Amino acid sequence: xxxxxxxxxxxxxxxxxxxxxxxxxxxxxxxxxxxxxxxxxxxxxxxxxxxxxxxxxxxxxxxxxxxxxxxxxxxxxxxxxxxxxxxxxxxxxxxxxxxxxxxxxxxxxxxxxxxxxxxxxxxxxxxxxxxxxxxxxxxxxxxxxxxxxxxxxxxxxxxxxxxxxxxxxxxxxxxxxxxxxxxxxxxxxxxxxxxxxxxxxxxxxxxxxxxxxxxxxxxxxxxxxxxxxxxxxxxxxxxxxxxxxxxxxxxxxxxxxxxxxxxxx
Length: 265
What we know:
By secondary structure, this protein is an alpha+beta fold. The chain folds into two domains: 6-152, Fructose-1,6-Bisphosphatase, Chain A, domain 1 (2-Layer Sandwich), CATH 3.30.540; 162-264, D-Maltodextrin-Binding Protein, domain 2. It has helices at 6-28, 43-56, 73-76, 91-96, 173-185, 199-205, 219-231, and strands spanning 32-34, 40-42, 63-65, 81-89, 102-109, 112-120, 125-130, 134-138, 150-152, 162-166, 189-193, 210-213, 235-238, 257-260. The strands form four sheets. The protein has a seven-stranded mixed beta sheet, with helices on both faces. A three-stranded antiparallel beta sheet has the order 12-14-13.
């Protein structure tokens, strides 16, 4: 029997139910608009956010989400725990209809991501895990059946060739320089692209080794994947300070970072 807190089970249910709503919009059509920061938001983002809030509010833990109001830092800095939610990560991919979008839910405790859920509506798959509970994957229909969860184990060897996974929608000169330097130090390197936090699926399943990010991301984009990856022996580092990312900061923007699996540390 897995020591799985009820609040974690609520996060699994929330991600599954939100995914159902997202798929309905994905199949029947949706409207979209640009937010003040220039990023797109769709009806599916907002509907998913409502579903997730409905389930997570039962845990009585504060919620910080992309599509919800953000309390002032004067309030947030006193939180010892909070949910960090992206109700539809990969909205650009959702609009392109390439299937590479997910629901991300993480639990933050004292600025550290301790549990994460990443759900893929199109693949009917959830990857989840965190400190003290392990890391797993299952289908939406099996979230209540622990005996049907597939336990993930830390990868012990790098892939050959080494697999670097990057964004499908964001490319920068810094990322090109990173790849050139990596190629100069490794004789065999492969690069793949994937949208949204689905890149953490590959890191968790061991089908990718490194995820460098030189473009803007917010805490809710990374927190869930960070918790899962750390439980599998990996880590997400500030690209320049070389320290693990922290959460519920005054500025919710992440620094440039690099996510590494256990063999890369």
